[in-house]
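Reopening this ticket.

The earlier resolution said the output was attached, but the attachment link was broken on my side. Pasting everything inline this time so it's all in one place.
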Amino acid sequence: MGAVHTTIHTQGSSRESTCSSCPVADVICRTTELGLTIEGAFIGDGDITVIQARPVEAVPFCPTCGAEGVLRDHVTRELTDLPVAGHPSRLHVRLPRYRCVGEQCSQVIFQHRLECAQVGAKTTKRCYLVDPAETQRLEDECEGRR
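Inline output:
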């Protein structure tokens, strides 16, 4: 069965969900507004909802020189996100890494950068729209530090 394509409209933007199992999950978990699409989900330790996702659109251009990179491999980035149905959630985002082929570029390897989180952050930006104390509680809960 091929991928189901659904256009999702959210506050002035629209993104296409390509979740092959259930595009409705992207809407319910609001991953499309993060630029992500769900590939799977499970309940992890501590009753945490783990959402496996990937970028809707990969950006293979070097942030240093702008050259198009060559796919090298993938890494998984873990981010605390807003609760799903009252349960803490964690995004496991599979990100492509690229090798820069720019002749004079000092950047050897780079990975897809997410709009939904700062570089190196462990929490999505939308969590900070909630009370900062609540965001810290969510991070602690996902890390098992209750």
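Reporter confirms the inline version is readable. Strands lie at 6-10, 13-17, 36-44, 48-55, 70-84, 87-99, 109-111. The helical segments are 23-28, 132-143.
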